[in-house]
Each structure stands twice: as C-alpha cells, then as structure tokens.
Amino acid sequence: xxxxxxxxxxxxxxxxxxxxxxxxxxxxxxxxxxxxxxxxxxxxxxxxxxxxxxxxxxxxxxxxxxxxxxxxxxxxxxxxxxxxxxxxxxxxxxxxxxxxxxxxxxxxxxxxxxxxxxxxxxxxxxxxxxxxxxxxxxxxxxxxxxxxxxxxxxxxxxxxxxxxxxxxxxxxxxxxxxxxxxxxxxxxxxxxxxxxxxxxxxxxxxxxxxxxxx
Length: 214
What we know:
CATH superfamily: Cation efflux protein transmembrane domain
Strand content: under 5%
Structural class: mainly alpha
Distance between the termini: 32 Å
Order of helices and strands: HHHHHH
Largest sheet: none
Shape: elongated
C-alpha cells in the first residue's frame, strides 16, 4: 500500500482488516509481559542491554496501544500517532546512550547466563510478533512504525545474546555496553525514518484538506 494513500482510499489495511487489530492486541500483551521479565532480569544481572531492551518493550507496548486507538481514524491522526512513536524511539536511543556512559563509568560486569537466557526468550517473542506483522510492513507511517519497532527488537535480542557470549568469554562489561550502543543507534535511525514519513503524510493530508482557490 502506498504511504500517500488518502483518507478515502480503501485497501486491506489496519482500519479494514480485523486481523491486524487482533495482532496488535497480541503484540501489546507480549511486549508488556516481556517488559516485566527483562526489567527484573536486567536489574538482577546488571546488564545495560537487558535494561535497554526492557524499556524498549515498554515503549512498544505503549505504541501498540496508540496504534489500536487510531486504526480507524483519518490519515492525519494516524500520522500524528506515528510522530509520537518516532519521537519515543529517538528518546529511547538517547536514554540508552546515557546508560552506556554510566555503565562504562561504573565498570560492572553483568551476569552472562541471565543475559543469554532472557535474550533468547525475548527473541522468540519478537520473532513471533514480527511474523504476524510482516504482511503490513509497507503500510502508512503508523503501520510502518509498528513494523520497524518489532524488527529492531528482534535484531536487538540477537545482539543481547551475542553480548552475553562476549561477557562470558571475556569476563568484561564492554560487550554488553557495545550492544547497548548499537541498540541506541537502531532506535535513533528507525525513529527518524518514522518521523520523516509521518511528516510527509501530514503535509499530504494538509494539502488534501486545503480548499482549492477558484
């Protein structure tokens, strides 16, 4: 589906397909549950990448909730929701950068076994959600943002598991911090992509709603 589709354009998108709404509810529940799991694991293990991933799960759960609210709304409102998603992804990236700096200053080595096992569980959760959302990855900015969040989460989970192997092999904290930094870069890149597309859709919707001069 084209991202420039107007409000009256009828395609098998989120606003007309109940399957997409069901998938968003599943994604919301999965992400909320994984936030609780990873938050506890991150605090107990001292892992910056797990804590970063936990906050990402929380942000995604909130984003899925916003998506459910705006599914049947006009393109302009969906684009505004996408702007919120993009901004939250950017904010997450900035937070993780700060957490990496703090971790480097403290020099605490995380627990590799907890990182690896929880990272594997998180990967299974995100891959499952990503497969469900795959068919809607090329929708408007709102749908595109949902897909990007889920895709980035799966990539981040793989990175957390690699970080666990690095921590286990070296006995140092730097693999955990490097992965957290990569996660920040993914969040910032994805957030900017969503913001850019949402702004284009807002501009398009504004032109559509502007009365033409006689």
